[in-house]
Amino acid sequence: MDLGLKGRRALVMGASAGLGFAIASELVREGARVAICSRSEERIRAAAANMGAALGVAADLSVLGATRTVVEQVTEALGGVDILVINTGGPPKGSILEISDAQWQEGFQSLWMGAVEGIRAATPAMKERRWGRIILVTSASAREPMPGLTISSGLRAGLMGLTKIVSSELAEHGVTLNAVLPSFYATERLKALGINEERITSQIPARRLGRPEELGALVAFLASEQAAYITGQSIAADGGWTRGF
User: Fold this and answer.
1) Average pLDDT over residues 134-155
2) For the domain that residue 137 is a member of, what is the CATH number?
3) What is the reported pTM?
């Protein structure tokens, strides 16, 4: 299937590794001109060269205004942003009594305000062109809170409401906004959290971890011409792990 992405200009955040890397790589394969960003300049340049991205930008998205600045930089370099994929690294584990105020603030800026900044920076030009795709990469913890992931579970749930309300403002302008909710994928993040693979896969109906390229394919479809009538949705990509929704 031709997704109609050839020549489209895309920005994928948090793309030096893991799910972001898989998403950006899929967009490159579909013929999009892709810019990627992450904190480490060395890693983002290597990732860009590896996947054939047009541009790699180093930025710390936990800093106020950083997401907006990245969108502006990429807009200038590529001549615009047609597809915006907002993906940020997961915040640290901890219970409500273990998490510091500083960690809450950093998580809020990265997960919440980063999304708001990116949407506000990209949508005016998308509305003017009457074409745009915005995809938020959140987590299945937004629907099914994960023990210990207090910041992630709390803040990402709000992004589903943001997706719904903002998508309704943009739909008549040809701009879609959707969220994808991955659960347990074979990435370094899973190892960093110390999650036992055998134990967790026994709880997943598919009986395996997700493959990053599977999420990449979903995001590429949501960015496509064919997905123009899909907006305001929070789509779980979790092998059936989320129940009751």
Assistant:
1) 85
2) 3.40.50.720
3) 0.93
